[in-house]
Amino acid sequence: MVETKKVPPRRQGRLFPEFTIPPEELAKRQAKKDARGKKARNFFNQICPQLIDEHYNWFITIEPNRGDYFIDPDIELAEQKARQKYPSGWVVTFRLNETGTCGRI
Protein backbone atom coordinates (compact mmCIF):
# COMPACT_ATOMS: atom_id res chain seq x y z
CA MET A 1 0.00 0.00 0.00
CA VAL A 2 1.32 3.43 -0.93
CA GLU A 3 1.26 6.10 1.72
CA THR A 4 -0.07 9.45 0.66
CA LYS A 5 1.37 12.65 1.94
CA LYS A 6 -0.96 14.74 4.06
CA VAL A 7 -1.65 18.09 2.45
CA PRO A 8 -2.86 20.84 4.75
CA PRO A 9 -6.19 22.35 3.70
CA ARG A 10 -6.04 25.63 1.77
CA ARG A 11 -6.93 28.67 3.76
CA GLN A 12 -9.67 30.85 2.37
CA GLY A 13 -9.48 34.63 2.42
CA ARG A 14 -7.04 37.42 1.73
CA LEU A 15 -3.33 36.92 1.74
CA PHE A 16 -2.76 40.04 3.86
CA PRO A 17 -6.03 40.84 5.66
CA GLU A 18 -4.43 43.76 7.52
CA PHE A 19 -4.17 45.64 4.20
CA THR A 20 -7.90 45.54 3.47
CA ILE A 21 -9.27 48.95 2.50
CA PRO A 22 -12.45 49.85 4.39
CA PRO A 23 -15.61 50.46 2.30
CA GLU A 24 -15.77 54.09 3.45
CA GLU A 25 -12.31 54.76 2.02
CA LEU A 26 -13.23 53.03 -1.25
CA ALA A 27 -16.39 55.17 -1.52
CA LYS A 28 -14.35 58.32 -0.82
CA ARG A 29 -11.83 57.41 -3.53
CA GLN A 30 -14.61 56.69 -6.02
CA ALA A 31 -16.26 60.06 -5.26
CA LYS A 32 -12.95 61.86 -5.90
CA LYS A 33 -12.50 59.95 -9.16
CA ASP A 34 -16.03 60.82 -10.29
CA ALA A 35 -15.50 64.50 -9.42
CA ARG A 36 -12.29 64.59 -11.49
CA GLY A 37 -14.04 62.92 -14.41
CA LYS A 38 -16.98 65.33 -14.23
CA LYS A 39 -14.65 68.33 -14.09
CA ALA A 40 -12.69 67.05 -17.11
CA ARG A 41 -15.93 66.27 -19.00
CA ASN A 42 -17.18 69.83 -18.41
CA PHE A 43 -13.92 71.26 -19.73
CA PHE A 44 -14.06 68.87 -22.71
CA ASN A 45 -17.61 70.00 -23.54
CA GLN A 46 -16.42 73.63 -23.58
CA ILE A 47 -13.30 73.12 -25.71
CA CYS A 48 -14.51 70.38 -28.09
CA PRO A 49 -16.55 72.57 -30.50
CA GLN A 50 -13.48 74.74 -31.16
CA LEU A 51 -11.15 71.81 -31.88
CA ILE A 52 -13.39 69.19 -33.51
CA ASP A 53 -13.29 70.71 -37.02
CA GLU A 54 -9.50 70.78 -37.31
CA HIS A 55 -8.66 67.71 -35.20
CA TYR A 56 -11.53 65.25 -35.67
CA ASN A 57 -10.89 61.87 -33.97
CA TRP A 58 -7.67 63.07 -32.36
CA PHE A 59 -7.10 62.37 -28.68
CA ILE A 60 -7.23 65.09 -26.04
CA THR A 61 -5.71 64.57 -22.61
CA ILE A 62 -6.97 67.01 -19.97
CA GLU A 63 -5.50 67.86 -16.57
CA PRO A 64 -8.78 68.67 -14.77
CA ASN A 65 -7.41 70.83 -11.93
CA ARG A 66 -5.64 73.37 -14.15
CA GLY A 67 -7.60 72.89 -17.37
CA ASP A 68 -4.50 72.30 -19.51
CA TYR A 69 -5.00 69.99 -22.47
CA PHE A 70 -2.76 68.17 -24.93
CA ILE A 71 -3.92 66.88 -28.32
CA ASP A 72 -2.37 64.38 -30.70
CA PRO A 73 -3.61 61.80 -33.23
CA ASP A 74 -1.92 59.06 -31.17
CA ILE A 75 -3.28 58.37 -27.67
CA GLU A 76 0.12 57.41 -26.29
CA LEU A 77 1.75 60.64 -27.49
CA ALA A 78 -1.08 62.77 -26.08
CA GLU A 79 -0.71 61.11 -22.69
CA GLN A 80 3.08 61.33 -22.89
CA LYS A 81 2.86 65.10 -23.47
CA ALA A 82 0.64 65.42 -20.41
CA ARG A 83 2.97 63.26 -18.30
CA GLN A 84 5.96 65.42 -19.24
CA LYS A 85 4.27 68.48 -17.76
CA TYR A 86 2.36 66.72 -14.96
CA PRO A 87 4.30 63.57 -14.01
CA SER A 88 2.26 62.82 -10.89
CA GLY A 89 -1.02 64.56 -11.75
CA TRP A 90 -4.33 63.00 -12.71
CA VAL A 91 -5.19 63.21 -16.40
CA VAL A 92 -8.29 62.20 -18.34
CA THR A 93 -8.27 61.26 -22.04
CA PHE A 94 -11.12 61.82 -24.49
CA ARG A 95 -11.45 61.60 -28.25
CA LEU A 96 -12.39 64.69 -30.24
CA ASN A 97 -15.65 63.44 -31.73
CA GLU A 98 -19.36 63.82 -31.00
CA THR A 99 -19.34 61.58 -27.92
CA GLY A 100 -15.78 61.91 -26.60
CA THR A 101 -15.33 58.15 -26.34
CA CYS A 102 -12.05 56.50 -27.29
CA GLY A 103 -13.38 53.09 -28.30
CA ARG A 104 -16.24 50.64 -28.25
CA ILE A 105 -17.48 48.71 -25.25
Detailed description of the structure:
With 105 residues, the chain is α+β, with helices and mostly antiparallel strands. The chain is built from two helices and three strands; from the N terminus they run αββαβ. Strands 2-1-3 form a three-stranded antiparallel β-sheet. The termini are far apart. The mean pLDDT is 87.
Q: Any idea what the radius of gyration is?
A: 22 Å
Helix share, percent: 25-40%
* Secondary-structure element series: HEEHE
Strand content: 5-15%
Q: Output mean pLDDT.
A: 87
Structure in a nutshell:
The protein has helices spanning 23-51, 75-85, and strands at residues 59-63, 68-72, 92-95. With 105 residues, it is of the alpha+beta class.
Main attributes of the structure:
2 helices; alpha+beta
What is the strand and helix layout of this fold?
Layout: H1 23-51, E1 59-63, E2 68-72, H2 75-85, E3 92-95
Antiparallel strand pairs: 1-2, 1-3
